[in-house]
Structures are given as structure tokens and as C-alpha cells.
Amino acid sequence: MPKSEKSRKLPWGLGNMVKSICQNSGQREVPNIRQKESDMPHQPSQTAIVTGAGSGIGRSLANQLSQLGYHVVLVGRTEETLEQTSQLLEGPFSIHVADIADAAACRELVAKVSEKLGRIDVLANVAGFAPSLQIEQVTAELWQQTIDTNLSSVVNLTAACWPVFEKQKSGFVGNISSMASIDPFPGFSIYAAAKAGVNLFTLVTGREGAPIGVRAMAVAPGAVETAMLRNLFDESMIPAEATLSPDDVAKVIVDCLENKRSFEPGQTLELPSPA
Questions:
Q1: Gyration radius of the chain over CA positions
Q2: How far is CA 234 from the centre of its chain?
Q3: Rounded average pLDDT per 10-residue block, the chain, 275 residues
Q4: Is 189 helix (H, G, I), strand (E, B) or coil?
Q5: CATH number of 19-271
Q6: In the chain, what are the domain boundaries?
Q7: Catalytic residue among 172, 185, 191, 263
Q8: Alpha carbon 200 to chain centroid distance?
Q9: Catalytic: 191?
Q10: Is 0.70 topped by the overall pTM?
């Protein structure tokens, strides 16, 4: 029996959203690369690139990776929020303000990181943009922005890192997808399509990477408790107990990285919000 609209309401905490949700979005007028590094003396360590690092899941993941001893490369569109993230980190970091929807910016970012730090061990594609609108409201510009931010950035950064991974014979790619790619609601047509693309690209990445020691996976979370979410919905609409924390989502990637959680090459792991 098909589920009623009532029974489908908020199965992963994002039902009936009609506003734009983004993990790390903003105006497109962003310089390609601006760079800043911590004052800590450089010591050889593993390196992790985290996009969308200025808030939410990206910030949490950067913090968890720093606790593991990684030099964390914080990538985002706003230097101020990246600075705020850097203050939470225990170890060395770099700040790169970049428009990762731009392929040339992705190549430049990877080249700078590889040249300065010597290696790239982890690529975490967290940044995303999720407009919610009916199909007849979709414009070519909004479609392109959604694809560029959610999918093209993942493809471009992974491709830019690939020669480094091949040379090292190792690497880990962790992508943030969404439950919208698996069980979308009306209004999430282009976001769901973009994230479904992330799932398939992750699968191919895992299969192509396995022979050369590159692991890839994605996590598809439901509603995540953030200030942004609360700016749109109070707890009468989405109770706190029906959301995930950014730490919950970041931990899935870290556990896979640390071999504490098993996954098939390129697998997308579903992480629904609590019932």
C-alpha cells in the first residue's frame, strides 16, 4: 500500500522544505584561491582536504580529523567562518577560500596543497547547496549552480587529487550525499538529482580506486541539527530528537577512514534521522 503523505512526513527530517538549504553556500563572486596557514611549525603528517569546512558537518569533520593528527586543509567560501573553525583545531591547518564549483580553482587548490604539504591522504567533499522548489520554478541558472556545487565540485576535486593518489598508492574520498537522493520529496528535484549523481560517482570512484589503494564512500544523512536548520524550522516542526548532529555524520566518515566501519568500494551509507 502506498504511504500516505502523512506517513511520509519527515522520514529524514526535511519534508516540506520550501526554502534554500545549503551546507556552505553563498554568492558566486568568490576569488579562486586565498590561502592562510597556522603558525605552528610544519611537521610531516597526513593531510586532509575538507570542503564546506566553515560550518556544520564540515566543521565537525575538520575537528575530528585534527584530533587524529591530520593537517586539515579548510576549504570554503568565507574566510571568517573558516577562521572560526580553525580556532577549534588541535593541530596544523591551512585555510583556502575558493569557489570549488570552478574546475580551475580545484586544480589550483590541489596543486598548492600537494606542493606545500607533499601529500593528500583524505578528500572530504562536504560543501553543498539544496534549493527547494517545484519543477516549473527551476531555472537554468539554478540548475547549473546546484549541479556545480553538489556534483561538479566533487568530480573536479577528485579528478585533481587522482594523480596524487596514484603516486602515493593510497587515498580516501569521503563524500556527503543526502537521504534526498534516496527518498526525495516534491520540491527537491534538482537537489536529489545532483546528490544521486554524487552516489554514482562515488561508486565509480571506489571501483576505479580499489586497484590502486584508493578507498571511497559516501554518507547520506537525514536532517542535521544546525543553526541554519533552526532558522527555518522550530522544534515544533522538526523536534531536536528527530535530527542528527553534525558530529554523528562526520563520525561515519571518520569511522570508515579508520577501518572501524566496513563498507563496499564506493558504497553510499544511509544515515536516517532518528524516528
A1: 18
A2: 25
A3: 39 39 39 51 76 96 97 96 97 95 95 96 94 92 96 97 98 96 89 97 99 98 74 76 94 98 98 88
A4: helix
A5: 3.40.50.720
A6: 19-271
A7: 191
A8: 15
A9: yes
A10: yes
